[in-house]
Amino acid sequence: MFIPLTLALASNLSTRVFARPPSYAVWAADSAIARGQGNGLDANGNAIVSYEHGEFQWGLRQLYEKTNNQSYFNYIQKGIDNVVFSNGTVHGSYSVTDYVLDPLRTGPTMIYLYGETHLSKYKVAADIFRGQLNSHPRTVQGQFWHKLKYPNQGWLDGIYMGEIFYADYTSTFQHANTTAWDDITSQFVLMFENTIQNATAPNNTGLMYHGYDYSRVAVWASADRGHSPEVWDRALGWYSMALVDVLDIIPISHPGHAKILSILQTLVPRIRDAANPTSGVWWLVITEPGRTKNYFESSGTAMFVYAMLKAVRLGHVQDHDGSIVRAAKKAYNYMTTNWVVANSDGTMGWLNTVIVGSLDTTGNFDYYTSQPTDLNDLKGLAAFLLASLELERLDTRAVE
C-alpha cells in the first residue's frame, strides 16, 4: 500500500525530505496536500468554493478507493468542512443568485461525503447547489448560461462544472427523474452542436470551440452559430472529462447515454489526431499548431490522456489498432519528462499550466497566448493525478 504524506508531516516539509513514491498518482496527490492545495481555502486562508478543489477531490476519492489510506478521505472531508457550515449553509464566497456554474464542481464531493458519513449538512449543501439549477438562466434552447454576467453564453468548461454534479445528484436522490436526465443530456448535446467545428471551418480539426453566444452579440461570436474563434485545449479537456465521467452516472437505459457516448466516440479519435506528432501532446490553441507564441500546454494534455484512457478502459471507445492508448502513453511520457519536477523536499512540481482562459474579451489567439502559466496550478496537477490513475490501471491490467 502506498503511504502518503500526512498533514502533520506536510507541516514540516521545510526541514524534512521524503522518498519519492513509486506511483505518480500518489506523488501528485501527496505533493498538493503537502502544499495545502485543494483544501477549501485560498492562499490567504479564507474559505473558497473552488471548482479546481472539486477536480482535485474527485481524484483523491479514486486514490482513497485504490489505497484505502484514510488520510486521503480525511483531506477531502476537511476541504468540504472548510466551506460548509454545520447547518449545511455554504460559505459566503458562494451565492446562488450569482448564477455561476463553477462552484458546483465541489457538489459531487458533498454527495460523496453524505453517502459515507450520513451527516445531513452535506445533503443540505448539495440541495442548495441543486436549487441553483432550478432558476439558473438559460438560452432559448435550454443551455445553462455559464455565468449570469455572460448572457446566453455556453462554455465547454461549464459542462464539467455543472453537469457532473447535476447527474450525480439525480442518480443519488432522484434516480427516476427522467426530466432531469433529459435535461442533462440536452446540456451535452446543445454544447456539442453549437461549438463543433464543421467541414468549412478554417484550421478545421473537427473539435469544439471554447464556447458560443446564442444571441451572437459577443465581439467574438461567429455569424452562424455564435461560436468563439479558437479551440482552446483546456475547455475541450473539461468537456472530454465530463463525457467519460457522466457515462458512469447516467443510466444505460436512458437514451441520453447513447447520445453522450456517440459524442465521445466522435471526439476521441479527433483528439488523438490533433496531438503534435513529434511531442505527442497538444498545443494551447489547437487550431493554430506551430504558430509563434503558441506552446504545449499541460492541463489540457493531462485531461485528454485521462479521457482517452478511461474511454478505452471502459469499452466506450474501441481501440482496435492500439493507436489511442499509444497516443495517450506518448503524451504521458512527455508530461513526466518535461512537466514533472522533482523538488528537493521530495514533493513534485508541475509546470506549464495556463492560469486562465476566458471568453470575457476577444477569445482570439492573442488573448489565449497572452495568459501566463503557473507553477503547481491545481487545474493541471489534478488532471495529471487523474491521468496517472488511469495509466496505472492500464499497466495493472497489462500485468494481470
From TrEMBL:
GO molecular function, one term: hydrolase activity
Record flagged with keyword Phosphoprotein: no
Signal peptide: 1-19
Database matches in InterPro entries: 6-hairpin_glycosidase_sf (IPR008928), 6hp_glycosidase-like_sf (IPR012341), Glyco_hydro_88 (IPR010905), PolySaccharide_Degr_Enz (IPR052043)
Gene3D superfamilies hit by this protein: 1.50.10.10
Record's keyword terms, sorted: Hydrolase, Signal
Entry's Gene Ontology BP terms: carbohydrate metabolic process
Protein name: Glycoside hydrolase family 105 protein
Organism: Pholiota conissans
